[in-house]
Predict the 3D structure of the following.
Amino acid sequence: MMWKAAFFILLSLSTGCTAYPRLPSENCPVKLIHTSDLPQDLSLRAQVQLQKGKHRINFEAIAESKSGVLTLVGIAPYGTRLFQIQQKEGKIHFSELDSSINRSLAIFTMDALYRAYWIRTPSKEASWDYANEIVTEGSHHNERYREFRQSGPREASSSVKIDYGFESGDRMTAVTTIENPWCGYSASIIQLKNNSGNQEP
């Protein structure tokens, strides 16, 4: 019940298995990269803590790109599958067993992973345009950051902010934090070993 309370969205959600749920902003989620342009050896296993409002959930995210299909699975600490989402070309497909609430969790997780790791920096530029969003990268106190702002005449004052830091008191454990007001979530991600194809700026 707490999980449902945490991610209940007043907007109605799509019940189809091949379309995005209707989410709070046109910038949520970020525009996906065609799977043919993703690293074919992409694999990721990470501990994720995602918060929406006053509620949070901890789970493990496992992603793999194989034969032109990107699969992302969320696993609860007690071993239950929370969601399974697949991307083929530019479209995503949900498991028909997943509830609309868990589909929203899947979308937020994929958005966080794309913004933090899978959107590549072109030629190490400090700022560039990606799908009508201005992406800026830099460093502060020797820690990297990335920021997404809306571009165009109706540029919003809010932005998605990503910090690549470390756990408090532990310089050996890298933590990526994402604050996304467009989707209404915040997340922290700790990548586990044996990952590949994931870029940090």
Remarks:
- The CA atoms of residues 43 and 189 lie 15 Å apart.
- The two ends are 38 Å apart (CA to CA).
- Residues 100-118 form the longest helix (19 residues).
- The helical segments are 2-6, 100-118.
